[in-house]
From TrEMBL:
It comes from Actinocrinis puniceicyclus. Residues 251-312 form the Helicase HerA central domain. This is ATP-binding protein. Gene3D superfamilies: 1.10.8.730, P-loop containing nucleotide triphosphate hydrolases (3.40.50.300). It comes from the Bacteria. Residues 1-23 are annotated as: Disordered.
Length: 584
Protein backbone atom coordinates (compact mmCIF):
# COMPACT_ATOMS: atom_id res chain seq x y z
CA UNK A 1 0.00 0.00 0.00
CA UNK A 2 1.31 3.45 -0.86
CA UNK A 3 -0.39 6.60 0.34
CA UNK A 4 0.62 9.80 -1.42
CA UNK A 5 -0.15 13.31 -0.25
CA UNK A 6 -0.08 15.64 -3.25
CA UNK A 7 1.35 19.11 -2.59
CA UNK A 8 -1.19 21.91 -2.35
CA UNK A 9 -0.51 24.58 -4.93
CA UNK A 10 -1.85 28.08 -4.95
CA UNK A 11 -3.75 29.40 -7.92
CA UNK A 12 -0.77 31.43 -9.08
CA UNK A 13 1.63 28.49 -9.20
CA UNK A 14 0.09 26.67 -12.16
CA UNK A 15 1.26 23.28 -13.41
CA UNK A 16 4.91 22.29 -13.13
CA UNK A 17 7.22 22.90 -16.04
CA UNK A 18 8.02 20.17 -18.53
CA UNK A 19 5.69 17.81 -20.34
CA UNK A 20 2.64 16.09 -18.95
CA UNK A 21 4.67 12.89 -18.51
CA UNK A 22 7.67 14.23 -16.59
CA UNK A 23 9.93 17.20 -15.93
CA UNK A 24 12.05 18.80 -18.60
CA UNK A 25 15.22 18.10 -16.65
CA UNK A 26 16.52 17.02 -13.24
CA UNK A 27 19.84 18.15 -11.77
CA UNK A 28 21.04 15.72 -9.10
CA UNK A 29 23.02 16.77 -6.03
CA UNK A 30 24.03 14.84 -2.95
CA UNK A 31 21.17 16.03 -0.76
CA UNK A 32 18.74 17.73 -3.12
CA UNK A 33 17.43 17.85 -6.67
CA UNK A 34 16.72 20.72 -9.00
CA UNK A 35 13.65 19.94 -11.09
CA UNK A 36 13.01 22.55 -13.78
CA UNK A 37 14.29 25.27 -11.46
CA UNK A 38 12.41 24.00 -8.39
CA UNK A 39 14.55 22.63 -5.56
CA UNK A 40 13.44 19.38 -3.89
CA UNK A 41 14.87 17.21 -1.15
CA UNK A 42 13.73 13.85 0.24
CA UNK A 43 14.09 12.73 3.85
CA UNK A 44 12.94 9.48 5.42
CA UNK A 45 11.60 8.73 8.86
CA UNK A 46 14.15 6.52 10.66
CA UNK A 47 13.40 7.05 14.34
CA UNK A 48 9.89 6.45 15.67
CA UNK A 49 8.50 7.45 19.09
CA UNK A 50 7.67 4.67 21.53
CA UNK A 51 4.01 5.71 21.80
CA UNK A 52 1.88 7.81 19.46
CA UNK A 53 -1.71 8.97 19.20
CA UNK A 54 -3.82 8.78 16.02
CA UNK A 55 -2.98 11.63 13.66
CA UNK A 56 0.43 12.30 15.22
CA UNK A 57 1.80 13.26 11.78
CA UNK A 58 -0.97 15.80 11.19
CA UNK A 59 1.48 18.67 11.77
CA UNK A 60 3.33 17.51 8.66
CA UNK A 61 0.22 16.82 6.56
CA UNK A 62 -1.08 20.37 7.19
CA UNK A 63 2.27 22.15 7.07
CA UNK A 64 1.89 25.29 4.89
CA UNK A 65 4.45 24.35 2.22
CA UNK A 66 4.76 22.16 -0.86
CA UNK A 67 5.39 18.71 0.61
CA UNK A 68 4.77 15.17 -0.67
CA UNK A 69 4.33 12.55 2.08
CA UNK A 70 4.35 8.88 1.07
CA UNK A 71 3.63 5.90 3.33
CA UNK A 72 4.62 2.55 1.81
CA UNK A 73 3.25 -0.47 3.66
CA UNK A 74 3.42 -4.18 2.87
CA UNK A 75 1.83 -6.84 5.11
CA UNK A 76 4.06 -9.48 6.68
CA UNK A 77 2.85 -13.09 6.44
CA UNK A 78 1.60 -14.44 9.80
CA UNK A 79 4.25 -17.18 9.99
CA UNK A 80 7.04 -14.72 9.20
CA UNK A 81 5.59 -12.26 11.71
CA UNK A 82 5.54 -14.89 14.46
CA UNK A 83 9.14 -15.90 13.64
CA UNK A 84 10.35 -12.29 13.74
CA UNK A 85 8.63 -11.60 17.04
CA UNK A 86 10.08 -14.75 18.53
CA UNK A 87 13.61 -13.72 17.50
CA UNK A 88 13.02 -10.18 18.78
CA UNK A 89 11.85 -11.47 22.15
CA UNK A 90 14.86 -13.79 22.32
CA UNK A 91 17.28 -10.89 21.67
CA UNK A 92 15.63 -8.73 24.27
CA UNK A 93 15.55 -11.51 26.83
CA UNK A 94 19.20 -12.36 26.16
CA UNK A 95 20.19 -8.75 26.65
CA UNK A 96 18.19 -8.47 29.87
CA UNK A 97 19.73 -11.67 31.30
CA UNK A 98 23.23 -10.61 30.26
CA UNK A 99 22.83 -7.34 32.16
CA UNK A 100 21.57 -9.25 35.20
CA UNK A 101 24.57 -11.62 35.12
CA UNK A 102 26.93 -8.63 35.07
CA UNK A 103 25.17 -7.04 38.01
CA UNK A 104 23.80 -4.09 36.00
CA UNK A 105 20.56 -2.37 36.78
CA UNK A 106 17.59 -3.19 34.59
CA UNK A 107 17.27 -0.99 31.50
CA UNK A 108 13.70 0.40 31.52
CA UNK A 109 13.79 0.77 27.73
CA UNK A 110 14.59 -2.91 27.23
CA UNK A 111 11.98 -3.90 29.82
CA UNK A 112 9.31 -1.85 28.02
CA UNK A 113 10.32 -3.24 24.61
CA UNK A 114 10.21 -6.83 25.91
CA UNK A 115 6.73 -6.29 27.36
CA UNK A 116 5.49 -4.73 24.10
CA UNK A 117 6.96 -7.58 22.02
CA UNK A 118 5.29 -10.14 24.25
CA UNK A 119 1.92 -8.42 24.02
CA UNK A 120 2.20 -8.07 20.24
CA UNK A 121 3.21 -11.74 19.84
CA UNK A 122 0.09 -12.81 21.72
CA UNK A 123 -2.16 -10.59 19.58
CA UNK A 124 -0.57 -11.86 16.35
CA UNK A 125 -1.11 -15.42 17.52
CA UNK A 126 -4.79 -14.65 18.16
CA UNK A 127 -5.07 -12.88 14.73
CA UNK A 128 -6.15 -9.65 16.42
CA UNK A 129 -3.16 -7.75 14.97
CA UNK A 130 -0.91 -7.90 11.93
CA UNK A 131 2.59 -6.72 11.15
CA UNK A 132 3.55 -4.49 8.23
CA UNK A 133 6.83 -3.47 6.67
CA UNK A 134 6.37 0.30 6.39
CA UNK A 135 8.46 3.26 5.27
CA UNK A 136 7.60 6.96 5.45
CA UNK A 137 9.27 9.44 3.10
CA UNK A 138 8.85 13.19 2.69
CA UNK A 139 9.84 15.34 -0.29
CA UNK A 140 9.84 19.11 0.23
CA UNK A 141 9.83 21.65 -2.61
CA UNK A 142 10.97 25.28 -2.63
CA UNK A 143 11.92 27.96 -5.11
CA UNK A 144 15.40 28.42 -3.64
CA UNK A 145 17.92 26.28 -1.80
CA UNK A 146 17.80 28.55 1.25
CA UNK A 147 14.02 28.27 1.46
CA UNK A 148 14.28 24.49 1.07
CA UNK A 149 16.74 24.23 3.95
CA UNK A 150 14.47 26.33 6.13
CA UNK A 151 11.45 24.14 5.36
CA UNK A 152 13.42 20.96 6.13
CA UNK A 153 14.68 22.42 9.40
CA UNK A 154 11.13 23.30 10.48
CA UNK A 155 9.84 19.84 9.53
CA UNK A 156 12.63 18.18 11.49
CA UNK A 157 11.78 20.38 14.46
CA UNK A 158 8.09 19.42 14.30
CA UNK A 159 8.94 15.71 14.27
CA UNK A 160 11.65 16.08 16.91
CA UNK A 161 8.93 17.39 19.22
CA UNK A 162 7.21 14.01 18.65
CA UNK A 163 10.52 12.18 19.42
CA UNK A 164 10.83 11.14 15.77
CA UNK A 165 13.98 11.37 13.63
CA UNK A 166 14.39 12.30 9.97
CA UNK A 167 17.40 11.26 7.88
CA UNK A 168 18.24 12.80 4.48
CA UNK A 169 18.49 10.43 1.53
CA UNK A 170 22.11 11.36 0.84
CA UNK A 171 23.26 10.35 -2.66
CA UNK A 172 19.87 8.67 -3.15
CA UNK A 173 17.70 11.68 -3.94
CA UNK A 174 16.42 10.24 -7.22
CA UNK A 175 15.25 7.09 -5.42
CA UNK A 176 13.71 9.20 -2.66
CA UNK A 177 11.88 11.47 -5.07
CA UNK A 178 10.57 8.43 -6.95
CA UNK A 179 9.33 6.94 -3.67
CA UNK A 180 7.12 10.00 -3.09
CA UNK A 181 5.68 10.12 -6.60
CA UNK A 182 2.18 8.63 -7.13
CA UNK A 183 3.54 5.46 -8.74
CA UNK A 184 3.38 3.09 -5.74
CA UNK A 185 7.01 1.90 -5.65
CA UNK A 186 9.69 2.40 -3.00
CA UNK A 187 13.25 2.07 -4.29
CA UNK A 188 14.57 3.87 -1.21
CA UNK A 189 13.57 2.05 1.95
CA UNK A 190 14.49 1.26 4.70
CA UNK A 191 11.31 -0.31 6.03
CA UNK A 192 10.31 -0.56 9.66
CA UNK A 193 8.07 -3.27 11.12
CA UNK A 194 4.90 -1.71 12.50
CA UNK A 195 1.78 -3.20 14.02
CA UNK A 196 -1.68 -2.40 12.71
CA UNK A 197 -2.38 0.29 15.34
CA UNK A 198 0.98 1.97 14.83
CA UNK A 199 0.53 2.09 11.05
CA UNK A 200 -3.03 3.40 11.36
CA UNK A 201 -1.80 6.19 13.65
CA UNK A 202 0.46 7.41 10.82
CA UNK A 203 -2.35 7.79 8.31
CA UNK A 204 -3.95 11.23 7.78
CA UNK A 205 -7.15 10.30 9.57
CA UNK A 206 -7.44 13.70 11.24
CA UNK A 207 -8.53 16.68 9.18
CA UNK A 208 -8.51 20.45 9.64
CA UNK A 209 -11.85 20.55 7.84
CA UNK A 210 -15.01 21.11 9.82
CA UNK A 211 -16.95 17.99 10.76
CA UNK A 212 -20.14 17.81 8.72
CA UNK A 213 -23.01 17.63 11.19
CA UNK A 214 -25.64 19.26 8.98
CA UNK A 215 -27.96 16.46 7.88
CA UNK A 216 -31.53 16.74 6.89
CA UNK A 217 -34.40 14.64 8.15
CA UNK A 218 -33.66 11.97 5.58
CA UNK A 219 -29.99 11.80 6.47
CA UNK A 220 -28.83 13.62 3.33
CA UNK A 221 -26.22 16.32 3.80
CA UNK A 222 -27.43 19.87 3.39
CA UNK A 223 -25.13 21.96 1.25
CA UNK A 224 -25.26 25.29 3.05
CA UNK A 225 -23.40 28.23 1.53
CA UNK A 226 -19.80 28.49 0.42
CA UNK A 227 -17.74 30.65 2.81
CA UNK A 228 -14.31 30.09 1.21
CA UNK A 229 -11.43 27.68 0.84
CA UNK A 230 -9.78 25.89 3.75
CA UNK A 231 -6.28 27.36 4.18
CA UNK A 232 -4.85 23.97 5.23
CA UNK A 233 -6.40 21.62 2.68
CA UNK A 234 -7.72 23.85 -0.09
CA UNK A 235 -11.13 22.20 0.23
CA UNK A 236 -14.25 24.37 -0.02
CA UNK A 237 -15.79 25.31 3.33
CA UNK A 238 -19.59 25.00 3.17
CA UNK A 239 -21.58 26.12 6.16
CA UNK A 240 -25.29 25.89 6.86
CA UNK A 241 -26.35 28.19 9.69
CA UNK A 242 -29.89 26.81 9.57
CA UNK A 243 -28.84 23.36 10.84
CA UNK A 244 -26.90 24.64 13.85
CA UNK A 245 -28.07 24.95 17.46
CA UNK A 246 -29.23 28.45 16.57
CA UNK A 247 -29.14 30.47 13.37
CA UNK A 248 -27.18 33.44 14.71
CA UNK A 249 -23.67 34.42 13.62
CA UNK A 250 -21.04 36.93 14.64
CA UNK A 251 -18.08 38.23 12.60
CA UNK A 252 -15.35 39.96 14.58
CA UNK A 253 -12.25 41.56 13.11
CA UNK A 254 -10.09 44.65 13.01
CA UNK A 255 -10.80 47.45 10.55
CA UNK A 256 -9.74 46.48 7.03
CA UNK A 257 -9.65 42.76 7.77
CA UNK A 258 -12.41 41.84 5.29
CA UNK A 259 -15.47 41.72 7.57
CA UNK A 260 -17.89 43.46 5.21
CA UNK A 261 -16.59 41.47 2.21
CA UNK A 262 -17.29 38.20 4.01
CA UNK A 263 -20.66 39.39 5.32
CA UNK A 264 -21.77 40.48 1.83
CA UNK A 265 -20.66 37.16 0.36
CA UNK A 266 -22.75 35.29 2.94
CA UNK A 267 -25.67 37.65 2.29
CA UNK A 268 -25.66 37.03 -1.46
CA UNK A 269 -25.54 33.27 -1.08
CA UNK A 270 -28.37 33.30 1.46
CA UNK A 271 -30.39 35.29 -1.08
CA UNK A 272 -29.64 32.62 -3.69
CA UNK A 273 -31.24 30.06 -1.37
CA UNK A 274 -34.41 32.08 -0.86
CA UNK A 275 -33.71 33.74 2.48
CA UNK A 276 -35.31 37.14 3.06
CA UNK A 277 -32.59 39.50 4.31
CA UNK A 278 -32.70 42.87 6.09
CA UNK A 279 -29.50 44.85 6.55
CA UNK A 280 -28.78 47.61 9.07
CA UNK A 281 -26.07 49.61 7.30
CA UNK A 282 -24.67 52.54 9.33
CA UNK A 283 -22.33 53.79 6.58
CA UNK A 284 -24.21 53.07 3.35
CA UNK A 285 -21.86 50.27 2.23
CA UNK A 286 -24.59 47.86 1.07
CA UNK A 287 -26.65 50.21 -1.13
CA UNK A 288 -24.97 49.32 -4.44
CA UNK A 289 -25.31 45.60 -3.70
CA UNK A 290 -29.04 46.00 -2.97
CA UNK A 291 -29.56 47.91 -6.20
CA UNK A 292 -27.68 45.24 -8.19
CA UNK A 293 -29.90 42.39 -6.95
CA UNK A 294 -33.20 44.26 -7.09
CA UNK A 295 -33.47 44.99 -3.38
CA UNK A 296 -34.89 48.01 -1.59
CA UNK A 297 -32.75 50.77 -0.07
CA UNK A 298 -34.39 52.66 2.79
CA UNK A 299 -32.30 55.78 3.41
CA UNK A 300 -33.31 56.84 6.90
CA UNK A 301 -32.92 60.58 7.35
CA UNK A 302 -33.91 61.34 3.77
CA UNK A 303 -37.06 63.42 3.19
CA UNK A 304 -40.24 61.37 3.39
CA UNK A 305 -38.62 58.20 4.79
CA UNK A 306 -40.40 57.13 7.97
CA UNK A 307 -40.72 54.08 10.24
CA UNK A 308 -43.73 53.91 12.52
CA UNK A 309 -42.78 51.93 15.66
CA UNK A 310 -46.47 51.10 16.24
CA UNK A 311 -47.14 49.42 12.88
CA UNK A 312 -48.61 45.93 13.29
CA UNK A 313 -47.79 42.90 11.08
CA UNK A 314 -50.24 41.16 8.80
CA UNK A 315 -52.95 39.72 11.07
CA UNK A 316 -53.32 36.66 8.82
CA UNK A 317 -49.91 35.33 9.83
CA UNK A 318 -49.01 37.25 12.99
CA UNK A 319 -48.96 35.67 16.40
CA UNK A 320 -51.60 36.50 19.02
CA UNK A 321 -49.07 38.50 21.06
CA UNK A 322 -48.06 40.89 18.26
CA UNK A 323 -49.85 43.87 19.82
CA UNK A 324 -48.24 43.27 23.23
CA UNK A 325 -44.81 42.86 21.65
CA UNK A 326 -45.16 46.15 19.78
CA UNK A 327 -46.00 47.94 23.01
CA UNK A 328 -42.98 46.40 24.77
CA UNK A 329 -40.70 47.27 21.85
CA UNK A 330 -41.85 50.87 22.13
CA UNK A 331 -40.66 50.87 25.75
CA UNK A 332 -37.19 49.81 24.59
CA UNK A 333 -37.14 52.49 21.87
CA UNK A 334 -38.12 55.21 24.34
CA UNK A 335 -35.40 53.99 26.71
CA UNK A 336 -32.79 54.52 23.98
CA UNK A 337 -34.19 57.94 23.01
CA UNK A 338 -34.42 59.55 26.45
CA UNK A 339 -32.35 57.31 28.70
CA UNK A 340 -33.22 54.29 30.78
CA UNK A 341 -33.90 56.22 34.00
CA UNK A 342 -36.47 58.63 32.52
CA UNK A 343 -38.12 55.79 30.59
CA UNK A 344 -38.54 53.72 33.75
CA UNK A 345 -40.17 56.62 35.61
CA UNK A 346 -42.77 57.09 32.89
CA UNK A 347 -43.21 53.42 32.00
CA UNK A 348 -46.76 53.15 33.35
CA UNK A 349 -47.88 56.33 31.63
CA UNK A 350 -46.31 55.22 28.36
CA UNK A 351 -48.06 51.87 28.55
CA UNK A 352 -51.46 53.45 29.17
CA UNK A 353 -50.98 55.99 26.39
CA UNK A 354 -49.88 53.31 23.90
CA UNK A 355 -52.90 51.09 24.50
CA UNK A 356 -55.22 54.12 24.44
CA UNK A 357 -53.74 55.28 21.11
CA UNK A 358 -54.37 51.85 19.62
CA UNK A 359 -57.91 51.83 20.98
CA UNK A 360 -58.61 55.31 19.60
CA UNK A 361 -57.44 54.04 16.19
CA UNK A 362 -59.92 51.17 16.42
CA UNK A 363 -57.27 48.52 17.21
CA UNK A 364 -57.87 46.01 20.01
CA UNK A 365 -56.23 42.68 20.97
CA UNK A 366 -58.53 41.08 18.37
CA UNK A 367 -56.33 40.49 15.25
CA UNK A 368 -59.29 41.25 13.01
CA UNK A 369 -58.95 44.93 13.96
CA UNK A 370 -55.25 45.17 13.03
CA UNK A 371 -55.98 46.14 9.43
CA UNK A 372 -56.89 49.64 10.63
CA UNK A 373 -54.18 52.34 10.22
CA UNK A 374 -51.89 52.23 13.24
CA UNK A 375 -51.29 55.34 15.36
CA UNK A 376 -47.86 56.96 15.37
CA UNK A 377 -45.57 58.14 18.15
CA UNK A 378 -47.03 61.66 18.11
CA UNK A 379 -50.43 60.29 19.16
CA UNK A 380 -48.86 58.51 22.15
CA UNK A 381 -46.95 61.65 23.20
CA UNK A 382 -50.10 63.77 22.92
CA UNK A 383 -51.98 61.40 25.25
CA UNK A 384 -49.16 61.47 27.82
CA UNK A 385 -49.00 65.27 27.67
CA UNK A 386 -52.76 65.47 28.33
CA UNK A 387 -52.66 62.97 31.21
CA UNK A 388 -52.63 63.92 34.88
CA UNK A 389 -49.57 61.76 35.59
CA UNK A 390 -46.52 64.05 36.18
CA UNK A 391 -44.12 61.27 35.13
CA UNK A 392 -46.00 60.89 31.85
CA UNK A 393 -45.93 64.65 31.25
CA UNK A 394 -42.17 64.78 31.85
CA UNK A 395 -41.62 61.83 29.52
CA UNK A 396 -43.78 63.50 26.84
CA UNK A 397 -41.65 66.63 27.12
CA UNK A 398 -38.48 64.60 26.67
CA UNK A 399 -39.92 62.84 23.60
CA UNK A 400 -41.36 65.93 21.95
CA UNK A 401 -38.18 66.73 19.88
CA UNK A 402 -38.51 63.33 18.21
CA UNK A 403 -41.90 64.10 16.67
CA UNK A 404 -42.02 67.88 16.38
CA UNK A 405 -38.47 69.11 16.88
CA UNK A 406 -35.04 68.72 15.30
CA UNK A 407 -35.29 64.93 15.20
CA UNK A 408 -38.91 64.74 14.10
CA UNK A 409 -38.31 63.42 10.61
CA UNK A 410 -38.20 59.73 11.46
CA UNK A 411 -41.15 58.78 13.71
CA UNK A 412 -43.93 61.29 12.89
CA UNK A 413 -45.73 59.45 10.05
CA UNK A 414 -46.69 55.94 8.86
CA UNK A 415 -44.01 53.61 7.54
CA UNK A 416 -43.03 54.75 4.05
CA UNK A 417 -41.68 51.53 2.52
CA UNK A 418 -42.80 47.98 1.79
CA UNK A 419 -41.80 45.19 4.16
CA UNK A 420 -42.13 42.20 1.81
CA UNK A 421 -39.05 42.55 -0.44
CA UNK A 422 -36.34 39.86 -0.57
CA UNK A 423 -33.61 42.34 0.45
CA UNK A 424 -34.08 45.55 2.39
CA UNK A 425 -31.05 47.69 3.25
CA UNK A 426 -31.57 50.39 5.87
CA UNK A 427 -28.83 53.00 5.51
CA UNK A 428 -28.19 55.23 8.51
CA UNK A 429 -25.51 57.56 7.16
CA UNK A 430 -28.10 60.29 6.71
CA UNK A 431 -28.99 60.31 10.42
CA UNK A 432 -27.23 62.22 13.20
CA UNK A 433 -25.13 60.08 15.55
CA UNK A 434 -27.65 60.61 18.36
CA UNK A 435 -30.34 58.76 16.40
CA UNK A 436 -28.37 55.85 14.90
CA UNK A 437 -28.76 53.53 17.90
CA UNK A 438 -32.48 54.35 18.14
CA UNK A 439 -32.88 53.74 14.42
CA UNK A 440 -31.16 50.36 14.77
CA UNK A 441 -33.56 49.39 17.52
CA UNK A 442 -36.52 50.63 15.47
CA UNK A 443 -35.46 48.52 12.48
CA UNK A 444 -34.89 45.46 14.66
CA UNK A 445 -38.36 45.89 16.11
CA UNK A 446 -39.82 46.07 12.61
CA UNK A 447 -37.92 42.95 11.48
CA UNK A 448 -38.87 41.16 14.68
CA UNK A 449 -42.51 41.95 14.00
CA UNK A 450 -42.26 40.34 10.57
CA UNK A 451 -40.37 37.34 11.97
CA UNK A 452 -43.18 36.77 14.43
CA UNK A 453 -45.37 35.52 11.61
CA UNK A 454 -46.08 31.82 11.44
CA UNK A 455 -45.13 31.22 7.78
CA UNK A 456 -41.84 29.41 8.58
CA UNK A 457 -39.94 31.41 5.94
CA UNK A 458 -36.22 31.93 6.55
CA UNK A 459 -35.29 35.48 7.47
CA UNK A 460 -31.97 37.04 8.34
CA UNK A 461 -31.12 40.44 9.74
CA UNK A 462 -27.53 41.60 9.24
CA UNK A 463 -26.24 44.29 11.59
CA UNK A 464 -23.04 45.95 10.42
CA UNK A 465 -21.06 47.77 13.12
CA UNK A 466 -23.15 46.06 15.78
CA UNK A 467 -21.17 47.78 18.54
CA UNK A 468 -23.35 50.87 17.95
CA UNK A 469 -26.32 48.95 19.32
CA UNK A 470 -24.50 47.01 22.03
CA UNK A 471 -22.95 50.10 23.60
CA UNK A 472 -26.42 51.14 24.84
CA UNK A 473 -27.72 48.95 27.72
CA UNK A 474 -31.34 49.08 26.55
CA UNK A 475 -30.46 48.21 22.96
CA UNK A 476 -28.08 45.47 24.16
CA UNK A 477 -30.87 43.88 26.19
CA UNK A 478 -33.16 43.99 23.14
CA UNK A 479 -30.45 42.32 21.05
CA UNK A 480 -29.98 39.67 23.71
CA UNK A 481 -33.72 38.93 23.78
CA UNK A 482 -33.73 38.77 19.99
CA UNK A 483 -30.70 36.44 19.93
CA UNK A 484 -32.34 34.08 22.43
CA UNK A 485 -35.72 33.94 20.66
CA UNK A 486 -34.82 34.27 16.97
CA UNK A 487 -34.51 30.53 16.33
CA UNK A 488 -38.14 29.92 17.28
CA UNK A 489 -39.21 32.18 14.41
CA UNK A 490 -36.67 30.95 11.80
CA UNK A 491 -34.78 34.22 12.10
CA UNK A 492 -31.00 34.54 11.94
CA UNK A 493 -29.26 37.43 13.69
CA UNK A 494 -25.95 38.14 11.92
CA UNK A 495 -23.69 40.68 13.63
CA UNK A 496 -20.55 42.28 12.21
CA UNK A 497 -18.33 44.46 14.39
CA UNK A 498 -14.75 45.62 14.71
CA UNK A 499 -14.65 46.70 18.36
CA UNK A 500 -14.28 43.19 19.74
CA UNK A 501 -12.83 44.27 23.09
CA UNK A 502 -15.69 46.71 23.76
CA UNK A 503 -18.36 44.17 22.80
CA UNK A 504 -16.82 41.32 24.82
CA UNK A 505 -16.05 43.63 27.74
CA UNK A 506 -19.73 43.97 28.69
CA UNK A 507 -21.83 41.19 30.15
CA UNK A 508 -24.66 41.67 27.65
CA UNK A 509 -22.28 41.92 24.69
CA UNK A 510 -20.52 38.70 25.68
CA UNK A 511 -23.92 37.02 26.14
CA UNK A 512 -25.08 38.08 22.67
CA UNK A 513 -21.87 36.72 21.12
CA UNK A 514 -22.19 33.49 23.12
CA UNK A 515 -25.67 32.97 21.64
CA UNK A 516 -24.24 32.83 18.10
CA UNK A 517 -23.60 29.24 17.01
CA UNK A 518 -21.56 30.49 14.04
CA UNK A 519 -18.54 32.53 15.12
CA UNK A 520 -16.05 33.93 12.60
CA UNK A 521 -12.86 35.70 13.65
CA UNK A 522 -10.75 37.70 11.21
CA UNK A 523 -7.46 39.47 11.88
CA UNK A 524 -7.43 41.03 15.35
CA UNK A 525 -5.61 44.05 16.72
CA UNK A 526 -2.93 43.26 19.35
CA UNK A 527 -4.88 45.32 21.89
CA UNK A 528 -7.97 43.11 21.48
CA UNK A 529 -6.40 39.67 21.07
CA UNK A 530 -6.36 38.89 24.81
CA UNK A 531 -10.11 39.48 25.19
CA UNK A 532 -10.85 37.53 22.00
CA UNK A 533 -8.60 34.61 22.98
CA UNK A 534 -10.24 34.36 26.42
CA UNK A 535 -13.79 34.61 25.06
CA UNK A 536 -13.33 32.03 22.30
CA UNK A 537 -10.84 29.73 24.12
CA UNK A 538 -8.17 30.07 21.45
CA UNK A 539 -4.95 28.09 21.54
CA UNK A 540 -1.56 29.70 20.92
CA UNK A 541 -1.59 28.76 17.23
CA UNK A 542 -5.05 30.22 16.64
CA UNK A 543 -4.05 33.36 18.51
CA UNK A 544 -0.94 33.73 16.33
CA UNK A 545 -3.03 33.13 13.19
CA UNK A 546 -5.44 35.95 14.07
CA UNK A 547 -2.56 38.35 14.68
CA UNK A 548 -0.83 37.68 11.35
CA UNK A 549 -3.39 36.32 8.86
CA UNK A 550 -3.84 38.21 5.56
CA UNK A 551 -6.95 40.16 4.71
CA UNK A 552 -9.93 37.91 4.05
CA UNK A 553 -8.56 34.95 6.05
CA UNK A 554 -10.68 33.88 9.00
CA UNK A 555 -11.18 31.29 11.71
CA UNK A 556 -14.63 29.66 11.72
CA UNK A 557 -15.75 28.09 14.99
CA UNK A 558 -18.58 25.56 15.00
CA UNK A 559 -21.03 24.98 17.81
CA UNK A 560 -19.52 21.55 18.52
CA UNK A 561 -16.09 23.12 19.14
CA UNK A 562 -14.48 22.17 15.81
CA UNK A 563 -12.65 24.94 13.97
CA UNK A 564 -11.25 25.64 10.53
CA UNK A 565 -9.33 28.48 8.94
CA UNK A 566 -10.45 29.62 5.51
CA UNK A 567 -9.94 32.34 2.92
CA UNK A 568 -13.16 34.03 1.80
CA UNK A 569 -14.04 33.45 -1.84
CA UNK A 570 -16.52 35.26 -4.06
CA UNK A 571 -17.62 35.03 -7.66
CA UNK A 572 -15.58 37.30 -9.97
CA UNK A 573 -18.74 39.01 -11.25
CA UNK A 574 -19.76 39.93 -7.69
CA UNK A 575 -16.36 41.08 -6.46
CA UNK A 576 -16.96 44.76 -7.32
CA UNK A 577 -20.12 44.77 -5.21
CA UNK A 578 -18.42 43.27 -2.18
CA UNK A 579 -15.56 45.70 -1.65
CA UNK A 580 -16.28 48.43 0.85
CA UNK A 581 -17.73 51.50 -0.83
CA UNK A 582 -19.69 54.35 0.69
CA UNK A 583 -22.93 55.26 -1.03
CA UNK A 584 -23.28 58.85 -2.06
Amino acid sequence: MALIRTPRRTRSEGPPAGSWFGPGGVEVHARHLEIDGVHAATVTLTGYPAEVLPGWLEAIYTYPARIDVAIHAEPVAPLAAASRLRKQRARLEAGRRGDADRGRLEDPVIEAAAADAQDLAHRVARASAKLFRAAIHLTAYADSLEELEQVLAEIKGLLAAQLATLTPATFRQIEGWTATLPVGIDPLGPARTLATEALAACLPIASPDLTRLDHGDGGDAVGGVLWGLNTATGNPVFWDRWTQQNHNSVILGASGGGKSYLAKTDLLRELYQGTTVSVIDPEGEYASLAQAVGGTVVALGAPGVRINPLTLPDPASAGPDALTRRALDLHALVGVLVGEKDADEGRAALDRATLTAYRDAGITPDPRTWTAPAPDLSAVIKLMRESTDPAGQRLAARLDPFVAGAHGGLFDAPTSHRLDTHLTVYTLNGLPEQLKTAAMLLILSEVWGQAGTADGHRRMVLIDEAWLAMKDPVAARFLFRLAKSARKHTLALAMVTQDAADVLGTELGAAVVANAATQVLLRQAPQAIDAVADAFHLCAGERAFLLTCPRGHALLTAADGSKATFASLAEPDAANLLHTGIAT
